[in-house]
């Protein structure tokens, strides 16, 4: 729930309705089952690990879905591989272009190399250097432009039109969502009595795939999304029932940093997701350190957001089987050092 101050602040940032896009049909549970046959041909299933120390601290059974163990260090690669497998020969011959803060771009670069397709990735000028270097190592042409993801996306869309390339949207792609949703199938198979799944939300493919799977298997499973309080555009769009755009905002967690809500994910979220929680950058930073200390897991900011949300919801989660999706682990040493500083400072305040 956003308090009045936060809502006023969001309005002060001039949130406005974004333009309506073409209407797409969301993938079905059967589509995700079909995607699994392709995804598992190229990518490993990731482990679902119990986290005893975190379980003790939170008063529930915590399991970590370790998507940071994928070849690119993030869950997105599942969607990239499945989408690339579905392109026509003509589309593959022309090449693809997309915009990303890093993990989606790595996904497309990885899949493009796998299928022999030219890939151009637009990323903001301040993009995570580890992710930019990884995209280039995978053979993609990387164009750095704009102050954030949404400015890079606009430049990318113009390039797609100018050159006739297949533009791959980071969210309005049913095949992308179907591919990503395969990790949710793995959760259900590994933990049939799961009761709650918490998923970070950037563009929304992860929480959408999770919602489709969980609500098909058992509508009683709660699917909870988490966004950064500094960039709550999906939360506000979900709450107000319309597509919104945030004129500015900030979170260090680039994997969940977007100023625009997109039509297809928002439609699925409204149908398949029970709640969205907002967490601060400080809470995310502390959770990064706690995942490393208590779970032996290296997570980037977006990957730690689910744990931050679990602390916010600890009373609701008590005694339940809870899966936290660790969406990625592509974090720089500089960001890790900063997170440790935040953790140390907050621990000192508590002890005082």
From TrEMBL:
The keyword Lyase applies. Coiled coil: none annotated. Residues 45-328 form the Tryptophan synthase beta chain-like PALP domain. GO terms for molecular function: L-serine ammonia-lyase activity; threonine deaminase activity. InterPro entries: Ser/Thr_Dehydratase (IPR050147), TrpB-like_PALP (IPR001926), TrpB-like_PALP_sf (IPR036052). GO terms for biological process: isoleucine biosynthetic process; L-serine catabolic process; L-threonine catabolic process. It holds the Pfam family PALP. Keywords: Lyase, Pyridoxal phosphate. CDD domains: Thr-dehyd. Its cofactor is pyridoxal 5'-phosphate. It comes from the Bacteria. Belongs to the serine/threonine dehydratase family. This is Threonine/serine dehydratase. It comes from Thermomicrobium roseum.
